[in-house]
Amino acid sequence: MSEPEATAGHSLARFWRTTDGYWNPYLAGVGVGCVLFLSFMVTGHGLGASGALARWATFLLERVSSHQVDTTGFFAGMGGGAKNPLMHWIVWELIGILAGGFVSGVLARRVAFSVGKGPRISSRTRLVLALLGGVIVGWGTQLSRGCTSGQALSGGAVLSVGSWAFMFAVFGGGYLVAWPLRKLWR
Q1: Distance of CA 48 to CAs 58, 164, 179, Å?
Q2: Per residue in 99-111, pLDDT tens?
Q3: Is 72 helix (H, G, I), strand (E, B) or coil?
């Protein structure tokens, strides 16, 4: 291979990936936009994940107390009576996301069990904060009628005013919480 061809190949690799080996974020964003467009075109729905988690929770609650599922409006809409809450497109979307992410991580040799944390915080505290944050986000997704991918990506793509308000609130809240907690990561 000649030197100009090798240089062109190297600059093309830099175009696709950053120096740390991750995808170029602008290209990844275009890719997510294409997937979102195809999702609307093929299924008639956008992307999302919290609906799948709510359906899993309904499935598990049904195993413990089917009467509760049948008599509570939130759960009955997903799994009351003879309905199987797991037989819904969003459940399969989430399974595909998890499987695809795992395969991608394995192929990129990035799968490892670790706790990402700063030097001033213990692993236990980090895990407690992560669990607390997850519970708050899970509760918030039900209040806002969707998760960040459902609201910001899918709702934002169709110019939903509520989704845009949600997006600004998420970023604003993230900055407010990050400011006092960032010292734990330094």
Answers
A1: 17, 16, 28
A2: 998 998 888 888 8
A3: coil
